Amino acid sequence: MTKKLWGGRFTGKTDPLMEEFNASIAFDRRLWQVDIQGSQAYARALVSAGLLTPGEGDMIVAGLEQVAQEWARGEFVIQAGDEDIHTANERRLTELIGPVAGKLHTGRSRNDQIATDVRLWLRGEIVQLRGHLHQLIGVALDRAAEEIDLLMPGYTHLQPAQPVRWSHWLLSHVWAWQRDADRLDELAARVNIMPLGSGALAGNPFAIDRARLADDLGFAGVTGNSMDGVSDRDFIVEFLFWATLTMVHLSRFAEDLIVYSSREFGFVTLADAYSTGSSLMPQKKNPDALELLRGKSGRMVGHLTGLVVTIKGLPSTYNKDLQEDKEPLFDAVTNISGSLQIACGVLSTLQVNPAAMRAALSPEMLATDLAEYLVRKGVPFRESHHIAGAAVQMAELQGVPLSQLMVEDLQKLHGAFEADAAAIWNFDQSVERRDVEGGTSRRAVLAQIARLRTWLDGK
Ligand code: ARG
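Above: the input record for the complex with arginine. Below: its predicted structure, written as tokens.
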């Protein structure tokens, strides 16, 4: 058994079960690269502060480089007693360069080290996630532009409501993703702050130049209080909230597509690449990709809730409870990353069925337009709404679609109906009348696309 970093004051042995229970190497090994990056920068800071000679500093930096190469080549051997990634890297460094390695941890604690590592790591992951999200938005904008002429029923309460453009529906999800992208950029700025130099809790005693160290590591600034610096996990909570809300948006998008791809709707057909079959029923083609997007949102809510509860009652500064931040964070990053890429794949390969969308439009969805016709003739909306309702009832009694009512019948309901009422029964015109900013007319939808494109191009 190797000597423990903190072994000095202990005489008894650690229970092997406790050893395993305490260790985080199984999951925090994922941080190997940023841990080495942070240590190399810290070694340079120790040289500047006069605590290492330039020669010692070079030895440590080069030794750490060697450790990094072992990780990169998959040759790093984790040993019993490598409690966490910090311990493992330092143990290996000592084997490679000897006792001078023992100077690296001067004034540093694993408390400020882990907080720094996680921020560095998450910063890099955010860059990737941002790219995936932008790509999804880009694909959606292309589709929305290309398929601008397709009309489909819009729903409230999942009941047919009014005709809308398919692109308008698609963009309704894009706006949510755009907010997600903005939120990610905002929280990224709060991730990119450096706790290193906080020591265990009271601050570094060796006059480390923190601003310079932060600069070396590409951080935008340093934390303002060492006690807060080692215990602040707000940036992880914020990230988990972001991942949760983004997953909730993907889940709602997926749910719409699950419904639209059902045989009963048939508006879209999922590509085989994102569907699976049934082991029992040969005819089945299931939207598993979409169901997983919906399902994973629940897991994300769990991670967010779990971490907030973990932090809630903690006394000041570092407590080992904080080690529990990593698994939910890592899992969240893995799953949100996969989800964004799958959503993009599903959307870019999806086939639309314009005829089925058209066929699902029914004249009853223009009952509101009937009421609006009367409004344009000066009838108050409350009254015209009532009259349109009576028209729906009349059509039902006659057993004909609303559009087949004769103008004479309509005139029995209100004298304002004239021959031009026949023009109400046109889905395209109904859609075109909704020409306000944010509406579903062709012009308004193209304006949405332009606005989102400008935003995306500015990223
Ligand atoms: N593995 C620990 C964590 O993830 C690193 C910090 C340990 N600090 C300590 N004082 N035991 O939080």
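Notes for the reader.
Residues 110-146 form the longest helix (37 residues).
The pocket of arginine is lined by residues 24, 28, 84, 110-111, 114, 318, 320, 322-323, 326 (CB under 6 Å).
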